Each structure stands twice: as structure tokens, then as C-alpha cells.
Amino acid sequence: MLSGEEWTENFDRLAANTPRFAALVVSIDDFEKKLNDLGETLFFPRLVRLGELLADMGPTRGLTWGRLDSRLFAAFCPDIDEREAVALAKELQDRYRNLVHETLSVGLAVYPFEPFAPKAILENARKALVHASFFGADTVTPFDAVSLNISGDDLYQKGDVEGAVAEFEMALRIDPQNLNVYNSLGVCYGVQGDLEKAVGAFQAAVEISPEDVMATYNLGLTYLKQEKRGEALGFFLRARSLDGGNPDIAGHIGMCYQEMGDIDNAIGYLEEAVERMSSGASVFRSLGDCYLAKKRFRRAAKLYEKAVKAWPRDARSLNSLGHVYGILGENLEIAIVLAEESVSIDKDNGLYQARLGELYMKSGDYEKAVSTLIRASELGHPCEALLEAARSKGGE
Q1: Three-state SS for 95?
Q2: Pick from 171, 132, 128: nearest CA to 149
Q3: Within a domain: residue 383?
Q4: pLDDT top residue among 61 and 220
Q5: One domain, residues 126 and 4
Q6: Each residue of 7-58: pLDDT tens digit?
Q7: Host domain of residue 201
Q8: Bond from prior residue into 115 cis (ω within 30 degrees of 0)
Q9: pLDDT tens for residues 246-268?
Q10: How many separate domains does the chain show?
Q11: Rounded distance, CA 179 to CA 207, Å?
Q12: Pairing with 53, which of 120, 199, 340, 360 sits 20 to 30 Å away (CA)?
């Protein structure tokens, strides 16, 4: 049998001259585990038996078999459709099971299959075999939009967002009503920063299934990234009506209310969220901000401490915790360290600089207070009264 690149080139030649055909890609189930458990000496004869079986089936049916790699066999099957290809794959499974008492899985794809060119069909069959693994051993799986969705998810996990988008967009050409693909595509568009396209994808998913919590929630998140808090809040509330026990949804509702200035409503939802989650820096921080606005400083401090524990490099939480410690008159040295760390992370935030300057004043270091408050003023934060007070105390 031809193998590797030689086999692929041979497949492409055959495909280019055949108006109707199928591709099969075949693997012994649990290949790697069996190879590790049995070792090459005991396992490879089984692989040879499979190759012999395939070669035996080839001539009478006009099949051309080859090896894609050390694990996968593949076949070019002229003049058969999907139904016939499935029947052929099942016959192969039965014969191999009777021969060695083990199972095979088969992925298959057919041509014509819009919008794919003939040479794409072999790769489609390989993707169908990956799809087959989701159903367990001894499975025959034809290529479809779900195969592309799985392939796209794999590319996304590997960091190839552009490749994932291409797979998801192709999947929608095959199945324009696939809810999961729209959700996946929306996530990718969001990662790429194309929020308008992300909104479009999630809206399409919601139109297909208004009861889908994930699409509704994701649409809210995308509007939030666009700073359209009213729209975001509406979709978060709708998601909550579909899944009232989800702490992430409650947290985002609370954060929307907090950013819109409705502190009382925000506290209710945020408290519900923090009761059900062990981590979530933004939720802890937002609830801390609410209690800071309510002048409940000790409660605010506890929440900022949780936020810092969950995300130690969050400048906003670090600065807010230092600020609250300063208000309470406790842990002043720690407060300064926290505020210094926050401005080292975000050097151009005038509020953080002003809070640090105020802490320097409380510690009696007026020279540092003056220089820090000057920097805060340069960054546009109003702190003239603090700066004048620091200078009057001896700062230069």
C-alpha cells in the first residue's frame, strides 16, 4: 500500500477524475492504549491483519486502500454514495471483529458535497473519524457540520482562532441552522475583537433557539464589551429567567446595575453571586465598590481581599483595598504596598496615583505625597486640595 504523502497524492489524482466517490478513514479503537499495553510485538500483527483485510476487500469492489500514517488506513471508493459507504464501513467492522475480536471506528465523506472540491474529501473523512470518537468505539460517522464544529473547537483550543473561524463559517454553509456553530463562531469573533460580527452570530443563535441560555448570555457579554450596558442587562435578565441558579449570570446583572449607578439592585445580585462562587475577581471587586459607595468599609475590605486573592495582578482591586485600609486607619504599611503595586501595573491612572499620594500623607511622607499627587494631577485627576495640604505639611 502507498502511505503518507504518496497516498494523498494518489487519492487526489483518483478524485480529480471521478464524478462520484467516497473516502473512508479507519482506525483500530483505543490504538495508542493497546499499543502501550501490548507492545509492538503483540500489537503490530493486528495492524497487519487489518491491512490484509483491507487489501482483500479492495479488488472486488474497486477500492484503493492506503495508509495516511502509522495509525490510520484510508480508502478511495468510486461510484458509491453515503448510504453505500456506511454499509461498506459496517461490513469492514464486522469482518475485522470476527477476525481478531476487536473493533474499528470509521469516518467517511462523499463527493459531490457542496461546497467542497474533490481533494478536500479525504480530509473531511479524517475529521469525521475525530467526530466518531465522541460516540465511543465501533462507530461509523459520516462527515457533516458537527464534524467541522469539532474541528473548529480543536483549532480554537490550540490558539488558531482564524482557522477555527474558517471551520465554523464552512459548517454554517452546510447547516445554516446549527445553534452550536453560531455560538462558537460568536466567541471567536469576540476574541478577534470584531464585536459587531459577534453580536450577529449570537443574535442568529438566539433567533434559532430563544430558550438557549448560552447564546443569550453571550449576547449580553458582547453588548457589555461594547459598553452598551442597557442592552447587556436586558439579555442577562433574560438569561436569568432561563437559568436562575447560574452565579455568573447573577454576577453580570449585578455588575451592570453597579456600573449604571443602581447600587441597591447591584448589591442584591452580587451578593447572590458571591455566595455561590469561590472565585471571580470582578464580581468580588464590584461588590466591594458597592459597599465602598455605601461607606461600609469593613465589608468592602473583605471583598477586595477576595478579589486580590483571585487575581493578584488586578490593579483596581489592589488600589481599592489599599484605599479602604487607609480609610479604616489599619494596615497602613500594607495599604501603601498595595497602592504602589497598583500604580506599577497601571502607571497612567490618575485615581490610583491620588489614592497613593493620600496614603503617603497619612504615613507622614509628604515629599512622596507631593510628587505622587503632582503625577495624579498631570494625569487629569483633580487633587488640588490634597496637593496643597501635602505642601503645607512640608512636602516640596
Answers
A1: helix
A2: 171
A3: yes
A4: 220
A5: yes
A6: 999 999 999 999 999 999 999 888 888 878 778 777 778 888 888 888 888 8
A7: 144-225
A8: yes
A9: 999 999 999 999 999 999 999 99
A10: 4
A11: 9
A12: 120
324 contacts: CB under 8 Å, gap ≥ 6: 288, 292, 297, 300, 301, 304
Q: Is 329 left (phi over 0), alpha (psi -120 to 50) or beta?
A: left
pLDDT in tens, 90-149: 999 999 999 888 899 999 999 999 999 999 999 999 999 999 999 999 999 999 999 999
How many residues are there in the chain? 396
CA angle, 13 then 18 then 23, to 5°: 75
Q: Which residue has the cell 506599577?
A: 344
Structure-block grid coordinates of residue 21: 466517490
**Which of 349, 294, 298 has its CA nearest to residue 319?**
349
C-alpha cell at 339: 497602592
Strands 64-67 and 104-111: what pairing? unpaired
The model's pTM: 0.83
Give the count of beta carbons closer than 10 Å to the beta carbon of residue 80: 20
Cell of 128: 469525521
Q: Specify which residues 104 forms β-bridges with.
A: 28
Residues 128 and 158 in one domain: no
Per-residue pLDDT tens digits for 333-367: 999 999 999 999 999 999 999 999 999 999 999 99
Q: Is the dihedral of CA 13, 16, 17, 18 positive or negative?
A: positive
How many other CB atoms sit within 10 Å of the CB of residue 378? Answer: 11
Per-residue cell: 169: 463559517
> At residue 218, what is the residue type?
N
